[in-house]
């Protein structure tokens, strides 16, 4: 799942004018736009669009999980807000659930950093090649995992993060794979903290081995989005890589696992 980024003026206009629609229309939207967030500074929702359109790299609609949204404007790293924007600034104490919106921006920033950290040897990895580099990861039970601990086993890695709805939705189905393929090692990799990973996986009954604080597998996500599924053969070579999720993708993973585990038994 890619972050929800809006790059069309029409969508932005809708986001800005939803609060001013007649009651019957506004009720259908359910969410109230409470402000604009740029470089960790909140601004009034009345901020003119022409102030933003010339500098933005994209838009992200943030939801507090209740009835409020914020328009997160993505800007270049070296962007400095004009002094004329001062009059639109809002104190965070005046923004409903400001801490939730800020937490989502920080998570988004961290996700971008981790998913775009791959160097050349990782970016150019092809099917049939062995995984480059090394890793040492600790699962939620305190066990350590390295390349050596995965030798001579078929491995499936599911890379996800808490902001990915499709990732969470497929967890119950993925959990059934452990029973179907007991000889396969199923790893779930997430760059977030153990407590976040634990809470989500327990809520959704996701029974794989979970690797929080992951910086190794997550770097392959890049611009293609979550979840990322990897299949690694017994000889340590990459056999399958797929971004996003669908019934077709899961069926293909299942088919390849049947083939690889059949070879493993021979």
UniProtKB/TrEMBL annotation:
<dbReference type="InterPro" id="IPR050553">
    <property type="entry name" value="Thioredoxin_ResA/DsbE_sf"/>
</dbReference>
<dbReference type="InterPro" id="IPR013740">
    <property type="entry name" value="Redoxin"/>
</dbReference>
<dbReference type="InterPro" id="IPR017937">
    <property type="entry name" value="Thioredoxin_CS"/>
</dbReference>
<dbReference type="GO" id="GO:0016491">
    <property type="term" value="F:oxidoreductase activity"/>
</dbReference>
<dbReference type="Pfam" id="PF08534">
    <property type="entry name" value="Redoxin"/>
</dbReference>
<keyword id="KW-0732">Signal</keyword>
<dbReference type="InterPro" id="IPR036249">
    <property type="entry name" value="Thioredoxin-like_sf"/>
</dbReference>
<keyword id="KW-0676">Redox-active center</keyword>
<dbReference type="InterPro" id="IPR013766">
    <property type="entry name" value="Thioredoxin_domain"/>
</dbReference>
<dbReference type="GO" id="GO:0017004">
    <property type="term" value="P:cytochrome complex assembly"/>
</dbReference>
<protein>
    <submittedName>
        <fullName>Redoxin family protein</fullName>
    </submittedName>
</protein>
<dbReference type="GO" id="GO:0030313">
    <property type="term" value="C:cell envelope"/>
</dbReference>
<keyword id="KW-0201">Cytochrome c-type biogenesis</keyword>
<feature type="domain" description="Thioredoxin">
    <location>
        <begin position="125"/>
        <end position="265"/>
    </location>
</feature>
<feature type="signal peptide">
    <location>
        <begin position="1"/>
        <end position="26"/>
    </location>
</feature>
